[in-house]
Design brief:
Blueprint lengths: L16 H13 L26 H19 L5 H21 L2 H10 L9 H57 L6
């Protein structure tokens, strides 16, 4: 079998942990942490007091580990012990993710990533790992899109405020030019 017959999909690297933590802080500071977890711009908002991800750095570490495992096991045949180990790691990974996510994301994760049955086949475990990695990648894209939308809104607001300030300044200049400046 050649590479052209079975092309490998491109696996994107996980985002930089410091950038995600910084971005998560920006989202919470802006008062719209509910959008940072996957709710797209314009979707129904959730309780703003609850962040979508309570520990962004832990999320990035888990995502990095999941991607690395997926890449490592992609090209090798797994024996029964390796399949059992991968299945165990998968279960613990999903449990760890559930601990740091809001109810909304937890429900989404549960609906997308179904639990593996005891004694799952090698193919089932690989598919479950790939599915989890894909969901995490989508979550990061959602965070980035939300933050981009917030930046655009902040820029638009700053531009409007600056224009209003310039208009007010122009009115003051016109008033000063029209007065004679003499007091009696």
């Amino acid at each position: 079998m050649t590479d052209t017959e079975n092309p490998q999909p491109e696996v994107l690297p996980p985002p930089d942990p410091e950038a995600v933590a910084e971005d998560a802080g920006v989202a919470e500071d802006a008062g719209v942490a509910e959008d940072a977890g996957g709710a797209g711009v314009g979707e129904d908002a959730v309780d703003p007091s609850e962040p979508m991800v309570s520990e962004p750095l832990k999320l990035v570490r888990i995502a990095s580990m999941t991607q690395a495992m997926l890449v490592e096991v992609r090209g090798i045949d797994l024996d029964d012990h390796a399949v059992a180990r991968l299945q165990s790691v998968h279960g613990r990974t999903v449990a760890s993710l559930r601990d740091i996510m809001s109810d909304e994301l937890r429900d989404e994760l549960d609906s997308v990533v179904l639990p593996l049955q005891e004694g799952a086949s090698e193919a089932e475990v690989r598919v479950a790992q790939a599915q989890l990695a894909g969901w995490l990648e989508g979550l990061f894209h959602g965070i980035r899109a939300s933050l981009w939308g917030q930046q655009v809104a902040v820029q638009r607001s700053a531009t409007q405020n600056l224009e209003a300030l310039h208009a007010l300044d122009a009115k003051e200049t016109d008033k000063e030019a029209n007065s004679s400046g003499l007091y009696l």
